[in-house]
Amino acid sequence: MAAQPTFHFLLWTLERFSTWKSQHPNKVLSRKETLSSGAGIFEAARQVQLRLPPNIQLSNSMKSFSPESILSQAKPVLQDVPLLKLFKGDIGLLDTQYRPLCLLPWKNVSNKDIASFWVEVLDFTDASGEACFKELAEFALSLLAMPLGNADVERVFSRMNIVKSRLRNRMKNEMLSAILHVRYGLRLRGACCRDFQPTARMMPMLNSKNMYASGELDDMDFPDVLETSDDDSV
After folding, report:
1. Tell me: the pLDDT tens digits for 149-162?
2. Dihedral sign for Cα atoms in the order 110, 114, 118, 123
3. DSSP-derived secondary structure for 68-114
4. Which residue, 74, 17, 18, is CA-closest to 40?
5. Alpha-carbon torsion, ordered 192, 118, 53, 91, to 10 deg
6. Which residues form the signal peptide (predicted)?
7. DSSP letters along 154-189, please?
8. How far is residue 147's CA from residue 158's CA, in Å, rounded to a whole number?
9. How far apart are CA 104 and CA 45, in angstroms?
10. Phi, psi angles (nearest 5°) of residue 131
11. What are the φ and ψ backbone dihedral angles of 125, each rounded to 5 degrees?
12. 169-215 confidence digits (pLDDT tens)
């Protein structure tokens, strides 16, 4: 039984039981009738639980980093957030940034655009120019970048197969990762490679030493056509 039909069965069972209960408000069920009426609900709930991913608690705890939650005076203690196990830095430093975050006025506090809120937090500096919430904001943004569904992963693999085609099958992972970063970076900024203007800082870095230090020039730009199948040579 698929997950979606299981949810439908659970809702159907609950609606049926609620309808029957409203039609017989004064009827007292026997033990056998109670067990019989609740068996369907229990089995449907058990099947739903079996189909939930093991890391569903981590996914649900993402709301702890929403503006509504983290700016609340009643927000949970940082040590109680399941996502904290993914942080590899100084937890004490993270906690000192987590607690006073709600004491400052922020502009982007909508739950519909959580990324803008954390970018604002990342850019915040004190009077001395020091980023007060750097570690916390970077951790939150890294969590937002996690693929939480199969569709996200499938889109990345689809792009990967387009970039690393059969004629470019010797491309190394470093170059593949760089091209994917460029593609998604341009899409995030709403730009295109045709009208992209490199900055003055980028220009000195565009040399053979930086771009082809790992010897990927031959692997990527000049693939060996003879290594492809006969269908490609026709």
Report:
1. 666 677 888 888 88
2. negative
3. HHHTSTTPPPGGG-GGGGG--S-HHHHHHHHGGGGGS--S---GGGH
4. 17
5. 130
6. none
7. HHHHHHHHHHS-GGGTT--HHHHHHHHHHHHHHHHH
8. 14
9. 43
10. -75, 110
11. -130, 155
12. 888 888 888 888 888 888 877 888 888 888 888 888 878 777 666 55
Angle between helices 173-189 and 150-163 in degrees, nearest 10? 120
- What is the token pair recorded at 158? 């689809």
Question: Residue 30 is encoded by which pair of tokens?
Answer: 């026997």
> Please, is 140 exposed, middle or buried when counting C-beta atoms within 10 Å of its C-beta (0-12, 13-18, 19+)?
buried
In angstroms, the Cα distances linking 160 to 43, 50, 166 are 41, 32, 12
Query: Which helix or strand (DSSP H or E) is residue 195 part of?
Result: none
In whole angstroms, give the CA distance from residue 89 to residue 139. Answer: 10
The span from the CA of 134 to the CA of 74, in Å, is 23
| pLDDT (mean) for 60-81 | 84
Report the amino acid identity of residue 40. G
Kindly report whether the global pTM for this prediction surpasses the value 0.90.
no
Return the sign of the alpha-carbon dihedral for residues 216, 217, 223, 227: negative
CA distances from 232 to 171, 187, 225 (A): 18, 31, 8
Q: What is the distance between the alpha carbons of residues 165 and 26, in angstroms, rounded to a whole number?
A: 70
